[in-house]
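User: Just a sanity check before I run the rest of the batch. Below are the structure tokens for the first item. I only need the designed sequence back.
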């Protein structure tokens, strides 16, 4: 069984909130409205799943050293927001994607290492999540999602007359979660272990990429149509 666990301090929370505020400000100033909305909605969804399902319904989430509701809300908004802002920009094939990518990954590094350097003993919170059998369910969702994309390409010409770039989606799904997990591991936040890095990278964010592709395509098309109508 893979049991992801991590230990953070209140310094992590402080610096992360500062980083999130900077990221939000940059998204607003650069008029990345859809990426901002996607990040907020994803954070709320993460909270619903982590706090509502893992913590309350299944009892597999453990939080020691903090109020579980408040802590999991911060954690969900932090992970969900940054991950899906980044994913949205990837799906946009944004011209400044490299810059955004460096900003987000270096931000994660900064948060963890600054907290360790300046507030090493400022309270600690230990969390873990037993995976039980639901990684099997995640693997099934992953299989069905990418299988559906393949069927669309084989028999329906992809999406809107264009083949779906499955490799591109796979790279996004694996790389975003891998980057997050790798930063946690090398900064000492994640307990040492190779399996959480591999399994989480393959499953946890990646399983949502097929659905995210269709949401992004539909929303982006509608957004462009509305802007065109406003201009004309």
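Assistant: Here's the designed sequence for the first item:
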């Amino acid at each position: 069984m893979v049991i992801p666990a991590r230990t953070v301090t209140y310094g992590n929370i402080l610096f992360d909130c500062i980083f999130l505020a900077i990221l939000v400000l940059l998204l607003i100033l650069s008029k990345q409205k859809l990426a901002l909305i996607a990040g907020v909605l994803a954070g709320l969804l993460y909270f619903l799943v982590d706090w509502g399902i893992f913590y309350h319904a299944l009892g597999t989430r453990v939080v020691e050293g903090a109020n579980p509701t408040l802590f999991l809300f911060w954690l969900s908004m932090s992970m969900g927001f940054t991950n899906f802002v980044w994913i949205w920009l990837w799906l946009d094939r944004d011209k400044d994607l490299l810059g955004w990518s460096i900003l987000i990954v270096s931000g994660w590094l900064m948060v963890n290492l600054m907290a360790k350097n300046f507030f090493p003993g400022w309270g600690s919170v230990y969390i873990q999540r037993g995976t039980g059998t639901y990684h099997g369910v995640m693997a099934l969702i992953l299989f069905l999602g990418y299988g559906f994309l393949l069927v669309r390409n084989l028999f329906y010409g992809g999406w809107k007359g264009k083949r779906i770039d499955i490799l591109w989606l796979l790279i996004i799904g694996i790389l975003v979660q891998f980057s997050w997990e790798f930063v946690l591991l090398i900064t000492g936040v994640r307990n040492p272990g190779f399996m959480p890095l591999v399994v989480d990278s393959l499953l946890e964010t990646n399983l949502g990429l097929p659905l995210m592709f269709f949401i992004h395509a539909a929303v982006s098309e509608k957004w462009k149509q509305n802007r065109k109508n406003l201009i004309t």
